[in-house]
Amino acid sequence: MSTTAEPERRDVLVCIKRTPAVGARIALTDDGLAIDTRHLGFTMGPHEECAVEEAVRIAESHRAAGGTARVTVLTVGPPDAAEQLRYAISMGADEGVLVEVPTEELDPEPTAASILAGLRSAPDTRYDLLLFGTDSAVAGNAQAGIRVACALGLPMVAGVKGIRFDDSGLELRRGTPAGIEIYRVPLPAAVGVKEGINVPRYPAVTGRMRARKAPLRTVPGEPAAGGLRTVALRRPREDRPETVVLGSGAAAAPAVVDVLAELGVV
Amino acid sequence: MLLVLIDTEADGTPGPGTGDVLAVAHATGLAVEVVTTGAVPDGLAVRRVHRLRHDLLTDHAPEALGEALVQLLAAVHPAGLLAAATERGDEVLAQTAARAGLPLATRCLALCPGEPWSLTRVRSGGVLLEDAELTAPVVLATVAPGAAASGSASAPAASASASEAPAPAPDVVEFVPELDPVLARTRVVERVPRAEGVSLATAPVVVSGGRGVGSADGYAVLEELAALLGGAVGCSRVATNNGWRSHSDQVGLTGTQIAPDLYIACGISGATQHWVGCMNARTILAINIDAEAPMVTRATYAVLGDLHEVLPAVIEEIRARSGTVDRPDPVPVGVADR
Ligand SMILES: Cc1cc2nc3c(=O)[nH]c(=O)nc-3n(C[C@H](O)[C@H](O)[C@H](O)COP(=O)(O)OP(=O)(O)OC[C@H]3O[C@@H](n4cnc5c(N)ncnc54)[C@H](O)[C@@H]3O)c2cc1C
């Protein structure tokens, strides 16, 4: 028995999403329903990468204090999303769960239902903390985590840039234009993590080796459509006039200051 | 009837995005009523205001407010409930949607009633638009900042009702939800006010640097120019990830989306995720060694060259014109006479 308030074991789940790493211009598929990803690499969203980093740090410090800890990463996506799970494992997560659905992009309700299906597939695991990215990179529906937390009866705060364990649970910090809001929530809890909470590590070679061999558990998802249905994606019209080149190098300075003066900022 | 949730600042003024959400709500052609937990802002062109009253709702409390809204929906049967797509608005409506088992469309620019409702929402910070259909007994949506100006919400009702002579004061109806005390678990318990100074989000001028700056120290020259122009310093994600700048300076999809009068992008390539953070700037000046960089080709003005040569020359020129003596040593930030 532990004599401190710290539990001996800490289980953290991080939910991540595979997202296309789009460049300076986004190409769409012929049917206009999706981003054309044929020539793109994939990544996980920055908020989620920070969530993985935060989970790994929580586990590391818990282990350093003599406890045991485990970080599970879960993604809802096609089989290719295993790539993002393995990346999270290379950062230090312990295991991965792929909740398999046929498409890259699922509406928010089936996404939440599929995450819950993934959790039900391991009914004996109790997570102390569920981390999500505060919103996903491309779709930005900003609700899957809250739906999951709500279904599980867990408290959830989104947009969080600071997590600290204290005697009664978690202290969470969130930035607003007016300053920082502080929340204190009991465990178990769910948190929507925002980029800036930490600077994610670059995986070490040993981590990459481990990730390559790590077994992933695959579970079927629940992709039945919800009430929100995408009809088409399109690019907004952009009418930008041609760029005016003011010159090259230091010699352009007078022309730059002319413009600054014209704009009334000097 | 459409309900619009209005967030109020501590001083009672309507929160960010209020104008946009009201414009989009009026543009649907449905009658609009307002929900608030705080003061009733002046000059609302609506018939009725529902004021939620409960001890748990005295500060931001996403779960308690989400639950209170579910109860209000059941009591007044609106066609839908809208809120501004701020971090808070998205969060509260997601709580409402999850608790009521309803779909939610966040970050909408326009909504059109029907069976189903059709809508346009912002994706990837605004480089993509999504046309979607929402099938639900009660429509829940948040409205993206700038929606009123995007043209999608320009039905006559919007501007007419907002700009005409003083609207009669709305009826204020109190609504007292029954809230489980356990919901107090997600309520703001403390606030730390922001440090004084120009904030990235509201600065009229932002001098921003990316990978091209090369180091944390390299930002000294950007700081200096920003101080001369009364602006703030921004950065790209590369700068944040390298530990050169704090994430609170990051412009872009996962940083801050800003709309200054002038954005000076130094050594930033202009990836879409950065672009969505600065594309609403009135004027963009790009300083880059690469004439083909997307930031250069999309900017209003560009200077081709090394930012470490261009910026010191610009600073010197500003000083020369304002008659300030040019000093050989770097001038501490904020000393410039302006
Ligand atoms: C889901 C997702 C979200 C993201 N969110 C954000 C975000 O919020 N904000 C963000 O910024 N990025 C974001 N990114 C990253 C983004 O895709 C780019 O990687 C990043 O913006 C590039 O930063 P950069 O322009 O500084 O670097 P680079 O793309 O490497 O560009 C450097 C530029 O500097 C120029 N240069 C180099 N040296 C000099 C010099 N001496 N003088 C002048 N010019 C020079 C080069 O010509 C080049 O154009 C996100 C990415 C993803 C996948």
From TrEMBL, chain A:
InterPro entries: ETF_a/b_N, ETF_b, Rossmann-like_a/b/a_fold
Any Pfam family: ETF
Superkingdom in the source lineage: Bacteria
Domain annotation Electron transfer flavoprotein alpha/beta-subunit N-terminal: ranges: 32-220
Cofactor: FAD
GO molecular function: electron transfer activity
Function: The electron transfer flavoprotein serves as a specific electron acceptor for other dehydrogenases. It transfers the electrons to the main respiratory chain via ETF-ubiquinone oxidoreductase (ETF dehydrogenase).
Record text on subunit structure and interactions: Heterodimer of an alpha and a beta subunit.
Protein name: Electron transfer flavoprotein beta subunit
Highest classification ranks of the organism: Bacteria, Bacillati, Actinomycetota, Actinomycetes, Pseudonocardiales
TrEMBL record, chain B:
Positions contributing to FAD binding: 211, 236-237, 250-254, 267-274, 288
Keywords, alphabetical: FAD, Flavoprotein
InterPro entries: DHS-like_NAD/FAD-binding_dom, ETF_a/b_N, ETF_a/FixB, ETF_asu_C, Rossmann-like_a/b/a_fold
Co-factor requirement: FAD
Cofactor note: Binds 1 FAD per dimer.
Entry keyword annotation includes Transferase: no
Top-level taxon: Bacteria
Domain called Electron transfer flavoprotein alpha subunit C-terminal: residue spans: 200-278
Domain Electron transfer flavoprotein alpha/beta-subunit N-terminal, first and last residues per copy: 4-167
GO MF: electron transfer activity; flavin adenine dinucleotide binding
One Pfam family in the UniProt entry: ETF_alpha
Biological processes annotated in GO: fatty acid beta-oxidation using acyl-CoA dehydrogenase
Subunit structure: Heterodimer of an alpha and a beta subunit.
Function of the molecule: The electron transfer flavoprotein serves as a specific electron acceptor for other dehydrogenases. It transfers the electrons to the main respiratory chain via ETF-ubiquinone oxidoreductase (ETF dehydrogenase).
Family stated for the protein in its record: Belongs to the ETF alpha-subunit/FixB family.
UniProt protein name: Electron transfer flavoprotein alpha subunit apoprotein
